[in-house]
Design brief:
The protein is mainly β and about 400 residues long. Helices cover about 0% and strands about 50% of the residues. The strands form 7 sheets. Strands 12, 13, 14, 15 and 16 form a 5-stranded antiparallel β-sheet that branches. Strands 3-2-1-29 form a 4-stranded antiparallel β-sheet, with no helix packed on it. A hairpin with a 5-residue loop joins strand 25 and strand 26.
Amino acid sequence: MSHPIALPRLLVAANCLGLLSVLLSGCVRSAGPSTSAKEYLLYVGTNVAGEQDNTIFLYRVSPTTGALTRVSAQHGGASPTYLTLGASRRFLYAVNETQSFRGAKSGAVSAFAVDPHSGDLKLLNQQPSNGASPCYISLDHTGKAALVANYVGGNVSLLPVAADGRLGAPVTDQHEGSGPHRNQGGPHAHCLLPDPANRFAFAVNLGTDRVYAYRLDPAAGRLTRQPEPAFVAKPGAGPRHLVFHPNGKHAYLINELSSTVTALAYDAAGGRFTEMQTLSALPAGYTGENSCADLHVSPNGLFLYASNRGHNSIAVFAIDSGTGTLVPIQDVDTQGKTPRNFTLDPSGRLLLVANQNSNNVVTFRVDPQSGQLTPTGQTTEVPSPMFLQVAEDFTR
């Protein structure tokens, strides 16, 4: 089902890519198979809780069909629900989303060496996350610091990364406060990531409706919180994840509790955001239960995608190349339940969705001109998939 299609001036700039003509006609043009013959690797983090169970799965992804072929299954520790692969592809890091680690009220962060020939993982070390239920991890752009958000702990941590990939002890900043929604009884950090210049790190807190700014010093292993929040969302919105546009001038915030997406202008000098627009991630008329989860900008910067849990869909928006504002153009059934996370391949021609509660990963073809999604017909059973990390196949 598609949203009503608007015709703002913002799409004129994209006319050379064929986007305007697609929106004017209301057509959905299916993209052909990717011309790239090189396959991709996909690491799947899961909510499988057993310490000795296989909890991280490795697949090879066909760019032409969207089919997933299992390569191996890894011991990733309990509930490795969010992953990040280093730029060199030598190391992979995971949060273990537990509430107890080594006798303390904390989750864990695991560092793995990546076999360059097979893609298999070897545990290097683990550190506490210094907060219960860590749910997000990113690396700063130098690869010297891992940035972790602890949901139940309501705090964020920086862990130094050594040259051999091992993690150092965390430094942590505790958030305080609450919001009006029933799920906002306390702080719930849900995201921590660097800005494009690596000068600031931003922590998104669902419980306090705030995005906090930190001066980032990865070499010294320091996070220094700024006196004022970088952004304050509407009360009860429940901001969850933040992504930057490739131009570095705009960013997008997905709000879990209000099922909305906010377009932001970014002040790179001051580390602050200004709201430009907030839109529903749901189609008009939907009145059922829903909570938003994940969002991604396409590699070409023309489209934004957001996941709905409850409605079980991916919402597709066109991005104004000048202003960064959004126009809803499509919403697509994820062919599963509870799309916790999704991702795009490096070419932007495949979108892969992890449906947590139906235990499947589904692939979609992305039309590079319209941004719209078409199911490939490929689905793969994976136990409680929570996170998808895709990369070009470095093993061949």
